[in-house]
């Protein structure tokens, strides 16, 4: 059975095409103003890359911020459930999940792929990927390079602002003081990692722990979290697609569209 | 969907009837007291021959008025109520007409946000502040509160010119107990599976408890109970939710509405617009003043310390109402309930009952974010 999972996230839209329990293709694009047209384009591209026709797809399940806007989907599932299912596909033994996306960070306690408990950040962008994106811009570093730059730092700068807007001005003032780029980058990562560590401790996450979401591609963040939590994190080869994958897996089971 | 309840319409219809009634009373010289908290006993107000109306604000539109005076980072309930008071007293048009009906505000020394805001009130309306002991479980606390209630009684005597007689006080205690018993009957009906009514509907009724007269409110509750006895809500099985935390003042139904739109069903509210407002009865055998002092100090408000009775209440509700999960809902910047969250969470963990914490204000900006959390929570429960 061919199913498609679409994760319409705040920062990026991800799609995974699943042939029974095998990933037949995936795509990641940035989320445009219009969730629906982003998802439609992604859907076309997914079909094209995997040589499939629309008729072959049995079911489409949407998750993420914009899931209700993906009107061509026949089911929806929450991000928490989706990530739990997606991570279970890669690492069945995992008991804790950390997902850091563009707008939300989530800490999930799981047992054999089933959600036991979860915690999400409060409503602002503090402790999320957008914080890193904005502050990387102020540093004039590409977001892809922020992690490896930070790894070169011995004395991370102290960044105290939780608020993205204030942190941006803090970065500018640190640069004006001549603090090396690497130290500022490391300081930003330490700042975010601390917020995530607090959430993980609150939830009492137990090993093994998976780290997913776009921010899991940030090597500096991974190293910092591993150091602070004193664990080795399991990171899938493509950590950004676990939500979409989970949605595609959910679509393999008969389920109805949620009432909302 | 089951047929709509005609008893709910009663509450809609009573709104304007009550306002007309209050206006007429006021013309006759009956004093109207404005209250903002459960700790101010209705019994004392009524036995002095006055009437009362709740002033707690649940709407965002008066908040900007309040922020001309108050810091931004205090709870929206305080800002909304205060905004309505100054708006009405300065001839503004934003707030509903309640404040203009009020002769005297009877406030209470509870949380910091309220206490300090009350200091600004006398400028706009005559204000009386009832003091409360903060450690309610001591004999000294009871004695002190007893003396505070008597002092308040004397104040009411001078306000109305009628002195409160023991008979009148006993009559009002009986009437208030009758309301409490009726609400127990209503809440007992919600123990059924599925419950015969949604929590978001009950909340809108509870928001009228201290707005309507006791007789009007009792009549409405009786009608709902009678109607619910035979009603079966034809809904598929849904996770049974206990809502616990800050009050939902009239106008604020955001979080409970989201919970039920997303497919949960609220079976009880542990809040001041829920169980805290009616759970304990006044002992009618005792001296009425003593009975009142004891009953009111049992209200498990987070302004009290320690507040063990709230944890016990929540645990009992979870068991008695067969609750699948608890949504702990606080208003932004409410420290008492936000801090107490930790102890509630801890107690529920021991019972293996999941809890979702939500902090929100009176704005609409976070509806989607709350929805995401609630949806995931409900999926986890089913
Ligand atoms: N190659 C990369 N290297 C480092 N970080 C990256 C990379 N790609 C994306 N990110 C980070 O990942 C974030 C986006 O993550 P993701 O795609 O999981 O978010 P989302 O699912 O859209 O958001 P949300 O889950 O909050 O709705 C970006 O803000 C950025 O910080
Ligand atoms: S929460 Fe406490 S202070 Fe607020 S209305 Fe209820 S009893 Fe009064
Ligand atoms: S909700 Fe909290 S902060 Fe607001 S008035 Fe009640 S106790 Fe005070
Ligand atoms: Mg995401």
Written description of the protein model:
The complex is a heterodimer of chains A (about 260) and B (about 375). Chain A has about 260 residues and is α/β, with parallel strands linked by helices. Chain A is built from eight helices and ten strands. The relative contact order of chain A is 0.20. With about 375 residues, chain B is of the alpha/beta class. Chain B folds into two domains: about 10-165, 3-Layer(aba) Sandwich (Rossmann fold), CATH 3.40.50.11890; about 170-380, Rossmann fold (3-Layer(aba) Sandwich). In chain B, about 50% of the residues lie in helices and about 10% in strands. Chain B is globular. The interface between A and B is medium-sized, with 17 and 17 residues. Bound molecules: adenosine-5'-triphosphate, iron/sulfur cluster (2 copies) and magnesium ion (MG). One iron/sulfur cluster binds near residues 77, 114 and 337 of chain B. Adenosine-5'-triphosphate binds near residues 9, 11, 64, 214 and 217 of chain A.
DSSP strand content of chain B:
5-15%
Report helical residue fraction of chain A.
Answer: 40-55%
User: N-to-C terminal Cα separation of chain A, in Å?
Assistant: 27 Å
Bound molecules: adenosine-5'-triphosphate, iron/sulfur cluster, magnesium ion
Separation, N- and C-terminal Cα atoms of chain B: 21 Å
Radius of gyration from the alpha-carbon trace of chain A, in angstroms: 19 Å
Fraction in helix of chain B: 40-55%
- Main β sheet profile of chain A: 5 strands, mixed
Overall CATH class of the largest domain in chain B: Alpha Beta
Count of helical regions of chain B: 14
Question: How would you summarize this macromolecular structure in one to three sentences?
Answer:
The complex is a heterodimer of chains A (260) and B (382). Chain A has helices at residues 35-50, 79-90, 129-139, 143-151, 164-176, 181-203, 219-229, 242-251; strands at 2-8, 12-19, 22-30, 57-63, 75-76, 96-100, 105-111, 114-120, 209-212, 233-234.
